[in-house]
């Protein structure tokens, strides 16, 4: 199965490169107008009719081969997956989850503040703040 997958992948890459080359060789629609008035197309490699028929048919065949290889690669990638694999997101969830959410919070220690030593006589009492913000509004 692995060898067949490699062969299909190589055929698809070669087909893509050949299609790129053939598409770049083709003339645009406006290029045929100059050939109608004696542009010298009769002495070309593909004859007096030009290369439109040969290149366009070859490009169509290569496009069909490329499309078939793409479908085969999609089929092989789907067939290689086990039946119970599920979603990628389901496999990302850890197998064990702690029972308590508080166990997941890391404990941090706050270092003691270091500053000038104060005595209780020099420290002013701090007024207690009310619990709600409504009591802090000035009254009239």
TrEMBL record:
Residues 108-140 have a biased composition (Low complexity). Residues 104-140 are annotated as: Disordered. It is found in: Cell membrane. Keywords: Cell membrane, Membrane, Protein transport, Translocation, Transmembrane, Transmembrane helix, Transport. It is a multi-pass membrane protein. The chain crosses the membrane at residues 54-76. Its main location: membrane. Involved in protein export. Participates in an early event of protein translocation. NCBIfam families: secG. Belongs to the SecG family. This is Protein-export membrane protein SecG.
């Amino acid at each position: 199965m692995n060898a067949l997958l490699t062969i299909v992948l190589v055929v698809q890459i070669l087909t893509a490169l050949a299609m790129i080359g053939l598409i770049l060789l083709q003339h645009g629609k406006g290029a045929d107008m100059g050939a109608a008035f004696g542009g010298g197309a009769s002495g070309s490699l593909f004859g007096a009719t030009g290369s439109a028929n040969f290149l366009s048919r070859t490009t169509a065949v290569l496009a069909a081969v490329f499309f078939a290889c793409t479908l085969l690669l999609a089929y092989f990638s789907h067939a290689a997956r086990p039946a119970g694999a599920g979603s990628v997101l389901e496999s990302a969830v850890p197998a064990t989850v702690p029972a308590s959410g508080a166990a997941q919070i890391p404990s941090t220690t706050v270092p003691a503040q270091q500053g000038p030593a104060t005595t209780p006589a020099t420290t002013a009492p701090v007024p207690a703040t009310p619990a709600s913000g409504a009591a802090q509004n000035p009254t009239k």
